Amino acid sequence: MKNRRNVDGNSKDEQLEQFRTEDKDKDLTTNQGLKVSEDEFSLKAGERGPTLMEDFHFREKMTHFDHERIPERVVHARGYAAHGEFELYESMKDYTAAKFLQEPGTKTPVFVRFSTVAGSKGSGELARDVRGFATKFYTEEGNFDLVGNNMPVFFIQDAIKFPDLIHAVKPEPHNEIPQAASAHDTFWDFVANNQESAHMIMWHMSDRAIPRSFRMMEGFGVHTFRFVNEQGKGHFVKFHWKPKLGVHSVVWDEAQKINGKDPDFHRGDLYEAIEKGNYPEWEFGVQIIDEADEDQFDFDILDPTKIWPEEEVPVQIIGKMTLNRNVDNVFAETEQVAFHPGHVVPGIDFTNDPLLQGRLFSYTDTQLIRLGGPNFHEIPINRPVCPFHNNQRDGYMRQTINKGQVSYHNNSFWKNTPSPVSPQNGGYQHYQEKVEGRKVKARSDSFKDHFSQAALFYNSMSAPEKEHIKEAMSFELGKCKSKDVRQQVVDMFANVNLDMAQEVAENIGVKPPETGGSEVAKASPALSQENTTKTAETRTTAVLVGEGFNGSEVKKVLQGLEENGVDPVVISSRQGMVKADDGTEVEAAERFDTADPVLFDSLYVVSGARVDKKFQQNASYYLQEMYQHYKPIGATHEGEQLVKENEMENQEGVITEQEPDSFVTRFVDAVAAHRYWGRDVD
Ligand code: HDE
C-alpha cells in the first residue's frame, strides 16, 4: 500500500478505497475463492441423513459466523460515526508546531465517533448520560485523536477511580439492572461518597445529558493539554467544538419515550442529515493560558472537574469541521476504530492532569482485548495517512509484510534505519517540563474545592434549565431504593444550592437540609443553552393531513417550509396518497402509529373536511404531546378547529393563521424558537 505525503481532505477516503469491496453481482465463493454451487443445503449422508464433516463450505460459513462478535467497548459501547474534514481558519503557529494547525485553509481528513457511555451496544440512545465525542485527525504527521465528551468536566480527578465510577454506573452486578441509566443506588452512592463528582453531576442532571442530536452538541477535550511551538515554548490549552446549529436538547419525558419509539434516534438523525447533504458542522475553538499564569485562577487549571470560564479565558475559534460522508460498513469503521488520547503529533503534548495521565495507559490496553492483539493500527480505519516504519513485528493478524533481515535498533546492516528523526525534522519530542516531588498517593490541596464551580454552573442556568436540573435529580434519586443514599446526596448538594437541595429533598421524601448554600454568586452565561444559536434549519415538523384538505394552500405551505430549511413529514391515517378536494394529492410518508410526536421538533395540523373521529383523536394526541413538550404548533384550515377543541388557541407558540405566506413566516419563526417554556403544562 502506498502512503502519501500531501494530505488533503480526501486522503483517508482514497486510502480506504483500497480496502473496499463490492459483493453485488458477483459469484459466491468460499474465503479461499472457490466457487460455491449450493448454499442452502449442507452435505448429508442421504437426504434425511446426518451432516458430514467434510462439508468445508458449511464449516467455514458457520465458524465465521460463530466468531463474528468482538467484545463491546467497556464504556462508550453504543456509538455512531461519520467521516469528514477539518479546515483551519487561523494559524496557531505562535502556539504549536502541529503541521495541520499552521496554514489557514489546510484540510485534514477526520473520523468522528459519538457515543453514550454507560449503555451496552444495543441500548437506547436517549439515556441520561454523557456523550463521547471522539475525533481522529489523519494528519501528515500521524494521527491526532481528540477523545472528548459533550461535557467539559469529569466525575473524578484521578484515573485510578475510573473502574469504580464505571462499576457504580453500569447495571448493578447482582441483577444487571438498570440498562443505560444512572438512576439507581450504586451510582448515587458513589456520588455521595466521591464528592469531587459534584460539578459533573450538575452537568449530568442538566439538559446537556439528553441532546436533541449529535449535530447539536458541543464537544470538549476536557483535560488541559499543552501546545508547544517551534521554539519549544509551551502554553496550556483546552479544546472546544461548537456546533453551528447551536446546543439543543429534548425534555426528559420525550427522551424516555423516544427510547421506546426509536432507540436509534440519534444515529438516524446523523445518518439522514449526511445523506440529505445537511452536513453537520462544528467550529473548533481553543482556550489558551500562558505558563506564567498557571496560578492566576481560583481553581487549579489541571483539575478535570473545573472549566475555564469562557468569560475569563475566551474561546478563540480557529477552524471548522464538517461531517460529509457516512461509513460504508459500521463494523469495519465505527466498531473497529481505536481512539487514544496518547495519539498526538509534534506540537501537542500532555499536562499532569492525573485523569489524563491515567487515560494514556488505558486506551491501548483496552484495544488489545477488544480488537484482539497489537496490530489494530493496521485496520484500515486506524491507519495513518502518512508512512509508518519501525521494528515492531508479528502478533495476531499481522498484515504488513516487512521485508528484509533487520528488525532491531541499533544496527549496522541498514545503517541504523529505520532511523529516529531529530525534533527539527519533525521527530516528536516530549515537552521538557521540570518535575520535582516525592512519590505520594495523594490529592493536591488545590483540587479540594468540589462545590464552587458546581454552584457557578447552577447560577448560570436559566429558570427552565434550573427546573430541569431539580426534576432530573428528583427522578434519579426517586429511583434509588436506599433512603440513606437519597439523604446523603441532598445533603451533599446543599453545598451547591440550598433551595435546590431542599426542593429535591421534599420531592423524594427525605429530610430537607437546613444549612448549606454557596458563596459563589458569579455566573458564566456561555454555559446556558438559552444563549445558544437557534435556527429552523433542519428542524422537523410532523404534518397531519386528512382527506379533503385544502390542497393548493397546504402545498404552498409545505413548499414554504422546505424553502426555509424545515423538514416536513406528512402523517395520516394511512400511508400513501391523501386527496384534497381540488384534486391535489400529497403523500403520507408515515401513519399515526409508525411515527410519534416525540420524534419531531414541531407540529403542523392541517386535518381535512372528511376526516373521521379516529383521525381527530390521533391529531389530539399529537397536539397534547407537542404542547406538553413545549414544541411549536401550527394549524390551518380544519386544523384550527382541533386546536380550539384542545383549548390551545392563542397559547404561547401556537400559530393559527389562514394565509399561507404569513403562516409560513410565523411558523418558521416559531420552529426557530424551538421551545416555549412559558406554557403552563403541569
Ligand atoms: Fe474514556 N475510555 N476513559 N474518557 N473515552 C474509553 O477506550 C478511560 C474519559 C472517551 O468512540 C475506553 O476504546 C479512563 C474522559 C470516549 O471509541 C477506555 C478514564 C473522557 C471514548 C477508556 C476515561 C473520555 C472513551 C473504552 C479515566 C473525555 C469512546 C473503549 C481517566 C475527555 C471512544 C476504548 C470511541 C473510551 C478509559 C475518562 C472520553 C476503557 C481510564 C475524561 C469519547 O480505554
Q: Which small compounds were modeled alongside the protein?
A: CIS-heme D hydroxychlorin gamma-spirolactone 17R, 18S
Q: How many domains would you count in the coordinates?
A: 3
Number of strands: 18
Runs in which pLDDT lies below 50 for 5 or more consecutive residues are none
What fold name goes in the CATH topology slot of the largest domain?
Answer: Catalase HpII,  Chain A, domain 1
Mean pLDDT: 97
What is the rounded Rg? 28 Å
* Alpha plus pi helix count: 17
Strand content range = 15-25%
Oligomer: single chain
Which CATH C-level class of the largest domain is it? Mainly Beta
Q: Helix amount, in percent?
A: 25-40%
Give the second-level CATH assignment, the architecture of the largest domain: Beta Barrel
C-alpha end-to-end distance: 63 Å
CATH superfamily of the largest domain: Catalase core domain
What kind of sheet is the major sheet? Answer: 10 strands, antiparallel
Structural class: alpha/beta
> What general form does the structure show?
globular
